[in-house]
Design a protein that fits this description.
Largest sheet: 15 strands, mixed
Order of helices and strands: EHEEEEEEEEEEHEEEEEE
Strand order of the largest sheet: 10-9-8-7-6-5-4-3-17-16-15-14-13-12-11
Number of helices: 2
Radius of gyration: 17 Å
Number of domains: 1
Shape: globular
Number of strands: 17
Strand content: over 45%
Length: about 250
């Protein structure tokens, strides 16, 4: 069996939360995208700025995801996710983010052998919530979705809702994405008319001021993001549109 092909299996758990994670992802085919660097045109409120970069490395059962997004006057936004590949797919162990010259903020996943465990946040030292297997960070979730689609592109048909537990720099929440199914469109301009999948983060009634996220995953890119759009709480829109892909052979370091 290819080292990047897996069948997701769900260890049994006692809690309803663990069972929900098992129902969502257990037993689904899974194939990791190949290591690559993706370049994106970065737009802020519709204005084109510099090029953003997404570095994806996978070696054995380890992965590293490194993202830089240019941001005017503030400096680049930097995100990094590192971790393992387990029975549920991508399993982050550390996620950190830095905005411009501000200090980095860290989120650490303390996982047990089944992929469950606890979270630790540099922003909230006293907040250590439990996590279930399959928990993702804000950016690893993109590669989790891509890997699931690589394994079976019949999942998440139009109208389906996919739930994923997601960690940011100080939060742990269940994010729900609505799928618009597989379509042929020019929603990713640089790919022309192509096959893609549009997912939209569903509005959370408990807090209507959180960011709204839309992602378009492209079949021609092994279901990696062809376009990402985030409307922040202050109304500012950050958008990344695929520009170019380059293969890499650099080892994780």
């Amino acid at each position: 069996m290819d080292k990047f092909n897996f069948l997701l299996t769900a260890p049994a758990g006692d809690s309803a939360q663990v069972q929900q994670g098992a129902d969502t992802q257990g037993g689904q085919a899974f194939r990791l995208p190949e290591s690559s660097i993706l370049y994106y045109d970065a737009y802020i409120d519709g204005q084109l700025y510099q090029t953003g970069e997404l570095h994806w490395f996978v070696e054995g059962n380890l992965y590293r995801l490194y993202i830089t997004i240019p941001y005017p006057f503030v400096g680049p936004f930097i995100f990094e996710s590192r971790g393992l590949i387990d029975a549920y797919g991508i399993a982050p162990t550390i996620y950190w983010t830095q905005r411009g010259t501000k200090s980095p903020r860290f989120s650490r996943f303390d996982r047990d052998e089944k992929g469950a465990g606890k979270m630790y946040f540099s922003e909230k030292p006293d907040f250590s919530p439990e996590i279930i297997p399959g928990t993702q960070d804000r950016f690893s979730l993109l590669f989790q979705l891509a890997s699931l689609l690589n394994g079976d592109n019949k999942i998440d048909e139009e109208g389906a809702i996919r739930s994923l537990p997601v960690v940011d720099y100080s939060t742990l929440e269940m994010w729900q994405f609505k799928s618009y199914g597989e379509t042929v469109s020019d929603d990713i301009p640089t790919l022309g008319r192509s096959v893609n999948r549009h997912y939209a983060l569903m509005q959370r009634e408990s807090d209507p001021y959180k960011r709204q996220v839309d992602i378009w995953l492209a079949r021609d890119l092994e279901w990696l993001p062809g376009r990402m759009r985030s409307m922040e709480a202050n109304g500012r829109v950050i958008e990344l549109v695929f520009k170019q892909k380059a293969p890499i052979s650099t080892s994780i370091h």
